[in-house]
Structures are given as structure tokens and as C-alpha cells.
Known about the structure:
Low-confidence stretches of chain B: 127-131, 156-174, 321-329
Helix content of chain B: 40-55%
Number of domains of chain A: 2
CATH class of the largest domain in chain A: Mainly Beta
Oligomer: heterodimer
Strand order of the largest sheet of chain A: 1-2-3-4
Largest interface: A-B, 34 and 35 residues
Number of strands of chain B: 20
Number of helices of chain A: 4
Number of domains of chain B: 4
Distance between the termini of chain B: 34 Å
Mean pLDDT of chain A: 86
CATH superfamily of the largest domain in chain A: Pleckstrin-homology domain (PH domain)/Phosphotyrosine-binding domain (PTB)
Radius of gyration of chain A: 22 Å
Low-confidence stretches of chain A: none
Amino acid sequence: MENFTNETLNINSLPKFEEVNFSPLHKNYIKVVYINIAITLLILAIGIGVLLYFNKDLQNKNSYLIFGISYLVIAIIGFFSSIASVKRRGFAIREKDILYKRGLISTTTTMIPFNRVQHVAMHEGVFSRIFNLAQIQIFTAGGSTSDVKISGIEKEKAENIKELLMQKIQNHV
Amino acid sequence: MQIDFKSPQRQSILGIVVMFADTFQSVIRAMWAPLLIVLFKLEPEKYIIVGLSFVGIVILVAVIAFLQYRNFTFFLDEDNQEFILSKGILNKSRINIQLSKIQQVNINQSIIQKIVGVYSLDIDTAGTDKKEISIRAIDQDLALILKERLLDYDNKEQDVLDENHEAIPKEIITAKPFIKISYATLFKVGITSKYGRTIAILITFVITLYQTFKDAVDTFELDESQVDSVFEQGLGLVSVLILIFGLLILVLLINIVRTFIKHFDFEILKQKNTLVVTSGLFAKKNTLLNPLKVQITSFSQNFFQRKFKILDMNMKQASNNEVEEKQKKSNVIEIPGCDSDERNEILRIILGKIPEKGQELNPNFRYLIFRILLGVIFPVALFAFLSVTVIEDLQFYLPLIFVYLCLVGCVIYFGYKNYRLYSNSEFIILKHGAWDVENEIIQPHKIQGITTKQYFWHKSSDVGHLTLHTAAGDVQFHFGNFTEIKQLVNYWLYQVETSVENWM
Lengths: 173, 504
């Protein structure tokens, strides 16, 4: 009880989450995204090809044109939007919480205090592993809407973050 | 009677009957469709084979039930504060539950259990690995003792808490129910609440009925035009009105019946620091509510309920996300038809005090733009488009459109008027709803995470969205002043990060 103080709190002097510097994802992560886009587009192309090959009604100039143009549009939009969305993602670790920011047309920031983290998982995708990257997933009791998944962190750094979080959890309990 | 749970125990011997009924039910449920086909398509000579195989199934199920009973044991490990349950015939499983993780212990009784005279005891746990544990057959006395033992851990914890906060007076243990809902109140609840749900049920019912009817018409090869013309003749304006009136009465009737079945003999007992809620007509439900584990407390009232001076209360407890919808519902404890004194009493037990509405946050008028776009402009445009292309006699439908606009206008306006976020240092209250005005109360230390969201076209007008994640679901406030939201978020983060109180 001797350490107990109860001074008036100046709300404006509280640390502001909106002024935190967010660190971007590793620059190699964009390459992983390229590969993923390429694979998705390839599968889509094969799908369209199969559809056109087996469907005799669609084998005319008009439908080729429609499919070609829409494929191109999807490809371009998908390509640029994923690049832009990767660039807009960022995370920050403060003394007592972790922040994750993302979103293309909207800016969404999720904040998880360390003393509410349930557990932490680290995932390594096939392509991420090539570039020595990993994904960190943070679980809370708030369910999947408040779980945070941060992709494209250098593996060593990811492990450090995981270690740090685990430590914080154990200290809390 | 042996009331020692330290050594492994079996269920009540009558459990075999319950197990048999359970397994038999699931077998029938899995096979009823093929069974029916077999019965109808079969020549009479072969009935004997069917009968024999039926007897075989019954015997098999009985053996399974017996083995299930034999292999089902449970006991309480007091040294490790664990409840241990073993079960299974081929796949044996052993489940250990930390007593501290137990969230709710429910004692229920289904019709079969009522006939046999036993109860089932279900244990709800929190945390990431959901293991639902249920003892299917146990005597009432034993169930009550076990329940008390299982929740003993909490009380110990609570006692420690009480010592720390000496200001909290100990609740006097009373065996008398402090809230009891009378038939008159139940009747009021029935005619005033949950129209939406009943209408939805009714619609699905009518659709299935129509489908079956149509199937019947198809199979009996009736002249379809005949049936259709019967429908058309019946659809004059007067009969439409009568139909609507009849439907209203039906909805009310169903509502009343549902309310009576669900909340019959509704009672709340205060036991130590927990609340015991019992209700139900056919299946008596007994739920234990630990105030510490309630994440969101809410009460709601609509226009009629305000006139009758009754309220609906809901207590949401921590729920696991992977859990199905059905179980999620059981994590909400509903108190129908309490008056404002009783509400205050409950709030005092759960939250420690009656929450006051703090600093008010209003939604921006952009809230209206969004709703009007969705509720008025889009449907009207669709209607206009349809009236040009498909429908011919537009005049006939105009009054309907007018009624629709009035309704939607009211919903949007009142929804906007009631949409508020109040916050002070102890409580966050979200008020919302156009018809059922609901107040959701959260304590800041029960927040698990916070998300803010802002669309780029809202940046210049400083408008943004807020989501508070709790273990019992999300609470959202949209179109608020973003500067104020950010300030509140910083404050809540500060509160969560410095709080030493357990969120559960």
C-alpha cells in the first residue's frame, strides 16, 4: 500500500497510439506476395482455359474478348492492390502492447495489451521460408476478430517477438 | 450417501437408460430417411427381416450404452485442483479440467432424464481449447454437491479478493429467491418482445409448409392451376387484411407460448457471491452465474415494455470463438421482465455498483447518409428500375412504398437518435437500437483488444469507427469523432495495461 498514489490523470499526457512509428514489413515480403499473385493468376488462367476448351458455346471471338479483358482487369487490380496493401501494413511494439495497422481503403489499427494475450504462434509458409520470413499470430480471448496476424517479419525478429510476448505472458501470470 | 469425489465414480446406474436413449436417438436421427424409404418400398414379406434388424440395432445400442456407462468415470483431484473425467469405449479419452478454468456448471433435465429421475451436469470451460464436459446422469443431491465443489475454487478466489477490497460488504446468504417472475409478467414479456425472431421462425415454417404442400401436389399429380386459382381467389384486399391481422395474433400467441415454455417459474437465487438462475417448463434449467465472469451486461426496453415498466436483461459470459452458435447462446443468460429496481439490484451484484452514464459520444450525421443510402435510396432505385422494366401497374404498389419509407425512416431516425457511447473511468455504455433500445455495459478491464478503423474519405471530416473486443464478443461504435475515439482508446489501453483486476 505504501506505493499507492492516486494523482489526477491528465488524459492528454497519455501515450498516443496514433503517433507511434510503425515499422513496415520486410522488403523481401513483397516478393512472396508476387509469387502468391502469380500462382493465383495462373490457377485462374487454367480455370478459364478449361472452361473455354470444354464449352463449345463459348468458343467464339466475343467471349474470348470478354474473358481476356476481364482477366486482364482482375490481374491488374489484384496486382496493384496487393502491392499497395502490403506497403500500408505496419506493426509497432510498445512497452505494454502491440499495434498492427493495415488496410487499403481504410486504415485499421488493432491494439492488444500484452496482459491480454492468450498465446502466440509462429507460421512459416513455403515461399516465406525461401526469403527467411515468418508470420506471427497473436491470440486473445476476444476471438478471431481481435486476433492479429503479422506476415513478412524476418524469422529471427519474429522469434524474438514471440519470445518477448511469451515472457510478458508468463510474467503476468 | 457417498459425497466424496476423490475416488473415481460412475454415473447413476439409471444413466444406462439415458445413454441408451441418447445413442438410440442419434442412430434414428442418422438413419430415419433411408429407414422410411425402406419401409415404404419394401414388400410385406420382408418386414420380418427389417424387424429383426431393428431388434439387432436395439440390442447393439443397449450394449453400447452399457459400455459407455461402465467406462465413464469422474473424480475430483483436490491436490491439483482438477476435475478428471474418463470416457469412451474404443477411443478412450481422459479430460483434465483445471477448476480455475470452469466457467459455468449447469444442471439440466431433459424429458427422458425427468422420467428416469436423474439430472445432467454440464461443465463449461473457458480458454482456447474447448472441451465440453457433460455428465449425463447424476442424482440431484449429488449434482448439487458436485456443482458446489467444482465452483469452490472460485469462492476461495473471491474471498481473497474480498479481503483485498474490504469496502465490499459480504452478501448475506439467502435461500429465498430475490427475483421471481410472475405469470402476469411473463404474459407481458410474451406480448412485447422478440417479434423479429418469431416472425423469422414463422416465415421459415410457412416456407417449409409451402414446400411440403407443393411436393404433395406434385406427387399426387393434382392440377396445379386449380390450386393456384384457389390462392388467387382468396387474395382480395379484405382477405389480405384479415390475413395480416391473423398473422399478428399468431405471432403474439407463439411469443407468449415460447416465453412461458422458456421462462416458466423463473427464479434467481443469491448464493454466496453467485447468482443461481432456474427456469423452464418442460426442461428445468439451472444455471450458475458468476459475476466475475460476466463480460458484457446489457438491458433493453422497447416502447411497449416501457409502458409496462419491464426490462430485458442479458449477461454475456466469455465464449470460445470456435464454439458453434448453439453453445454461444447458452453463454448468454437472459432475465426477462424485471423492473428497474430489480435491474439495479442485479447490476449492483454484477458490476459492484450502478453504472452512470459518463461522457457522451454522438455519431456523426454521416451515419444517416450510410443508412439512408442502404435503406431508402437503393431499394427505391431498385423499385423504380423494376417498375420501368417488369411491373406494369405501378399505382397499385405506391402506397406500399409509402408505408415502407415511413417505417424505414422511423427506424433510421430512432436508430440515430439512440446511438450513443457513454464512457467514464469505470464503465463504457453503448446505447443503440431503434425499437428495442439496448444498453450494453462493459468494464474497461474486460477489454481484450481494441480496433480503430477509418476510411480515407472520412479523414478530412475526422470520423472513424471503433471496435472493442471482449471475451463475449465485440462492441462497435461507428461514425464517431475520431479525435475523441483516439483519446478514449489511449485511455482504455492505459486502464487495461495498468489494471490488476482479473478479466475472468
